[in-house]
Structures are given as C-alpha cells and as structure tokens.
C-alpha cells in the first residue's frame, strides 16, 4: 500500500471517529438524561420519541409546570417539548374535627342551661360531650336531675364532684 493510500485511509478513519463523537443522542439516552433532570419532580413523567419529549403529570402550580418544560428543553438532543402537565391546585384543608364536637356541645349546653335553672345547688358544665355535675343536692333532686341530663344523650354524666345528702 502506498503512502498516499495509507494517509487517505487514516484521514477517513479520523473523520469517521469525529463524526461518531458528534452523533446525536438516541431517544434512550435523551430519556435517561430527562428522567435524571426531572428526578426532583416525581409527579412529572416524560416520554421521548424522535427527540420530541412529551411531559405528563399533575403539579400544584404553573411555575412548576414551566420549570419542568424549561429543564427538559435544555437537554442535548431534545428537538421540542410537548407539555401535557396539568395544574391541579391542592385541595382546601378539611375543617377541624372539633366543629362537630363544638356543635354537639352547644346543643348539650343549651339543654343543660334550661335544666339547671331548677337545680340551684348544682354546677353543671359540658365538655366534649361529657356533662360534669358538682355541688350539693338532695337524693331526690339528684335523681330528677340525672334523668333530665340523660335525656340529652351525652357521652357521659360525671357526678364524681357532686355531694348527695
């Protein structure tokens, strides 16, 4: 082989190596890079076909949606981005569970207020569905009061602080 042919062969191999190094990334390679870049956004998924990245998922705000798109656009080999991400604001917080208890307590308090007028020796309080009776009453008055309080359907009537004569 002559020197001229050898030189031409070496130049062709060098050119082929340079072209191979500058080859466009495959969809699989792009997918790997995009997935790595979106790893902080687990709610976003990406599919790649012919260099076109399609984003999907649900995020809480427009800023997150735009950030995902911008991140993917800057990836080598990405030709375009189809952003199908949906913005779904977070649901409003549930009302506190104490609302039902307060409503039940309010109903009990109204009933207790009406009943307690006839029992001046007793101090009656309502908390979390439990009626607490303290003070001093005769046995007959206590029996009548207990029946009236039970008719309100509390969780419990606590008379441990009541003195019965």
UniProtKB/TrEMBL annotation:
Top-level taxon of origin: Bacteria
Residue intervals of the BON domain: 22-89
Name of a matching Pfam family: BON
Signal sequence coordinates: 1-23
Keywords: Signal
Gene3D superfamilies: 3.30.1340.30
UniProt entry tagged with the keyword Signal: yes
UniProt source species: Chitinophaga filiformis
Family matches, as InterPro entries: BON_dom
UniProt name for this protein: BON domain-containing protein
